[in-house]
Amino acid sequence: MPALNDSHPFRARRRRARVRLPLAFSLCAALLLGTPALAPAAPVHTVVGPAALAAGPVPATVNPLPSLAPVFAAGSTAVLVNKSHPLNPLRYAPSDLVNVRGSGYYLRAEAAGALNSLFNAASSAGQGLTVVSGYRSYDTQAALYDYYVRTYGQAYADTISAKPGYSEHQTGLAVDIGNAGGSCGLSTCFGDTPAGRWVAANAYRYGFIVRYPNGYSSTTGYSYEPWHLRYIGPTIAADMRARSFPTLEHYFAGNPASGASIKSGSDLLAVDSAGHLLLYTAPQSGSYRYRTTIGGGWSNLKQGFVVDWNADGVYDILAQWKNGVLALYRGRAGGGFDGLRSVGWGWADMTITVGKLSRSAMYPGVLGYRPDGVLRYYANSTGGALGGFVSMGPGWAGRGITLADWNNDGNNDVLAQLPGGALLYYRGNGAGGIAYPSTIGGGWQVMTSVAPAYGYAGLGTRGLLARRTDGTLNYYGFRSGSWIPPRPAGSGWGPMKLFR
Ligand SMILES: [Zn+2]
Predict the structure, then answer these.
(1) Minimal CA–CA distance to 289: which of 22, 13, 496?
(2) 83: CA distance to ligand 1 center in Å?
(3) Which CATH class name applies to 13-51+257-498?
(4) How far is the CA of 275 from the centre of ligand 1 (A)?
(5) Annotated catalytic, 225?
(6) Topology of domain 70-236, per CATH?
(7) Is the pTM of this model over 0.90?
């Protein structure tokens, strides 16, 4: 449970953010949203045809968007290295290489330790593995690449070998493995051996991915290599698996939201007392320093949400207006938002949150209750207007509700704040159902806003941004079903309406 009574020293981030933004940054700001048109209108369906759905990767998962931009720091375990992104510097050499299991091959210490755990687990499962290759220096890779070019010609060499400076093996995070018998060493048949299948199914538990999966050569630039594992850390490896990203390129560089106004699941939208809609971009370091004003006339907002409503990879704004209109403002890939589309009305007395309850759902729906306290889930089956609802039981009146993946199984769970301050966790089964609750916190009656935040404390991180009655904002991170120590995220947020 978060240490709610601790007082954390912090600086008034918001005051600093009031400093006028440099012109260049202002120019990057989104198109201003107009004054919302509040007259209930006929719903406008945003029909996404089957062709459009097939064209791009649409992970059937709860949190489909990448958390952050790609990482290019050579020393990061999350570094992206491929044919268009060499290491920087080109002759980068890690400083913490260790001999892996006495194999004579080297990996960075963290990756070596993780590979050791993977090998031990494989062994316990009856699968013998062997290390075939590990770290390769720039000079070693240069010699290897030259050999392949001389032997096969450059065109073919480029599909099986990297130029020096462009190889993941130079990071000290990539390892080639084989089955202990050695019959399929560096051969695609490794993927069909029991050992290869075990590795493909379990590597993520130890922070590894099969970096060049079958069928994605056009994305990765490499043929299928079931033997080439890349260490990216257990957090991202699990995140990629839970959200069905097939390659690191999909996870990072395929981010279609890079030019959009809201880029990250940890960006924060807020409405101030004058009705300005403000966008705070969250840097990886975890504080809200910069803001842009992206709209006006938002004083009659009941609750706002940041969500990829139509699953096009760009965050949208869902606004619940006090007059009961539920309005969608679709984010544009190049920045800015479309005008209001009503996706529902009669929502004035609803307490709601937004997200997926089912892994097979294409679009996030709405979970909420009326004053009668009956929890209902409204599916969003078209990426446009909401359809009917499923009743999920009574007794929810007065509760704060949040959808977040508390136990890190890839399914959204329901977190409920009781009026007395207890925070309950209802495990989601990924098929629209939730289990009986358990208590995961107390003292939450002082929280006046609770929102899930993805990527706030770094790649793949999950947590809640919670505002207390005194206007301070704190980040409560969690891992698989347990809290990590909270950190302050600024003060002076009391008068703001925070989006979720
Ligand atoms: Zn390799």
Answers:
(1) 13
(2) 14
(3) mainly beta
(4) 55
(5) yes
(6) Muramoyl-pentapeptide Carboxypeptidase; domain 2 (3.30.1380)
(7) no
